[in-house]
Amino acid sequence: MSTEVTNESGYDLDEAEFAALSRFVIDEMHVHPQAELEIRFVPTDVMAELHVRWMEEEGPTDVLSFPMDELRPGTDTELSEEGMLGSIVVCPDVAVEQARVAGHSAEEEMLLLTTHGILHLLGYDHAEPEEEKEMFDLQRRLLLTFLARR
């Protein structure tokens, strides 16, 4: 698994932690070990520009996912195809505020958003109630397992 983590936000974070999380999630989802992923942390103005450009919505958001090769999870017996999973863009400023409201740390919020973004890259969505339950349950299980193993 090749993960490139870039911090353009100015927010102090442990890039290695996010690379470790992505490796964990990718392994748990049985994605080919040669898959590539980019995680970018950007300031609010950059996220707002991306949000308008790609989602046609004003203001910054917490996370955006940009799939490339439309890889899907593998199974216990068969890995996914090799390829470029895609890019995740996270806005720490938005994450800090969401963490404050949720009552946990900004780092935990950004780890949650990263997990959420990876699941979107793998084709998960939360537009319908049953999809939301599946995605959010999986996201919770993956993150809690990762945090327990640190």
From TrEMBL:
Its EC number is 3.1.-.-. Binds 1 zinc ion. Keywords: Cytoplasm, Endonuclease, Hydrolase, Metal-binding, Nuclease, Ribosome biogenesis, rRNA processing, Zinc. This is Endoribonuclease YbeY. It comes from the Bacteria. One of its GO terms (molecular function) is zinc ion binding. HAMAP family: Endoribonucl_YbeY. It comes from Occultella aeris. Its cofactor is Zn(2+). GO terms for biological process: rRNA processing. InterPro entries: MetalPrtase_cat_dom_sf_prd, YbeY, YbeY_CS.
